[in-house]
Amino acid sequence: MKTISSISVGTILLIIAGCSGGRYVEMTRAGESAYREGDYRKALEYSEKIIGEVEGKGKQSAGNVYALAGISACKLEDYDKSLNYLLKAQQQDYSDGNMYLCLARNYRHIDNLSKEITALETYMEKYPQGNETGTARERLFRTCLESENFELAGELWTKMDSASREDVTNLETYLNLNRMQENDSTCNSVAALILDKDSDNEPALSWFAKDYYSKAENSYQAQMKAYKENRTHRQYAILLKAFKQVNADFKKSRDYYLKLYKLYPNPEYAMYLGNIFTRLEDEKKADYYKKRAD
Question: Which one of 60, 81, 110 terminates a domain?
Fold first, then answer.
């Protein structure tokens, strides 16, 4: 297999049979030079000119030329064209780190999660010391939330450097992964860390809002059920004592939801506020938020 870690001058591996080899070498050099200078449009033009002439003679172009075209098109966000060229590069048994990263980006664009994951995993397997390994690992970690691959997520999280593990977006993913697994203790610590970095972060605020609400509502329902089944003075005293903590948790939840609703006026947050104010026996505010939950 032909393996090149990055596009650079001097990486001409094949001279197209039946064509003017020297001219194609010079055109490919020019395309690679344009790519390194960030002129992706010109790099695409050079490579497409070669591809057009060669395919016009019923032949396949060299893998590195297809890769140059595909990667340049990806940089220009022409994803359909990019994917077409990169798949042709693969058919030529060509391998390049940037090629797999662009394949992942193309598959993300068309919402093909399984193929995006495969491209990212291939990059990390073939280029473990590549310049973009950290970026690929972070993206692969985030796909674990969609694919619910908790085992892989745990492995990737432990391999991330400290900067990546303190990145708010990565922390949000880690919070949601643990939320899905009902790891409440971890969620509490991660959400607190997120809010230290971003006090208006919606996922972290939402975690604490729902957590305190669930504790309060579950306790409320349990204590009311116990009292209805045993209406004694002793049970009533237990109910009153429990309600002190219930009300405290509802108030904590209320404060989080008030902030959430102010920042992100979502009807769901209004619904929770309506329920909370009902429990706190503030019918005026309960009615206000319930109307905004419709």
Answer: 110
